[in-house]
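Now read these lines:
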Amino acid sequence: MATVKKQAKKNETKTQILLVDDHPVVRDGLTAIINHQRDLNVCGGADDAHHALKAISELKPDIVVVDISLKNSDGIELTKSIKAQYPKLRVLVLSVHDESIYAERALRAGARAYLMKEVVSENIVNAIRTVLKGEIYVSNTISKKFLQEIAGDKAATIKTPVENLSDREFEIFLLIGEGYKASQIAKRLHLSVKTIETYRARLKEKLNLADANELLQYSIKWAKNKDK
């Protein structure tokens, strides 16, 4: 799917928003909610990182709303690319995934908001307005967790082995759990098979797993339960 065509008459007084999600029905739903606001306008959409970056260049949005799970790409890595090329462009990340695992990664990547899709219809406009004011938008649960960490709450700072993985390690871990082979992961991430094997060895070490089979079983189990 190519990017959604630029609207013929763009109202320059409105905040322009680009939607990046590989589900057309989600983009359509968000468009209806956002365009209902007098000062907000969805200027286009994309379903993967390539088309998203192309759309940003062409449409010059004020805000980009990015889903973590994209067609042939990853929303966290896309957020990093956006911030590297357009440092002032605001990014909001949406996901069905557990916020306790993904919110911090999204913010570290440069996002200004993390919003669970299960509550997006009620909160997307508020999240956009919060970000426009220069503030960060996260749920009360995540906000409380961050404050506890700042205050030195040891219980809040303890992380699981999976949470301690780097973003790239975590991405490869998830792809293993989704059934991708080393050669497929290498092609998807534009890396060599040797590099993927190095990451696999690192994952076994960090997760204290004996062999490749344990890594596969653990990643499959984790992938199945991460959103429950």
Summary: The mean pLDDT is 85. The domain at 167-225 is CATH 1.10.10.10 (Arc Repressor Mutant, subunit A). The chain is about 55% helix and 15% strand.
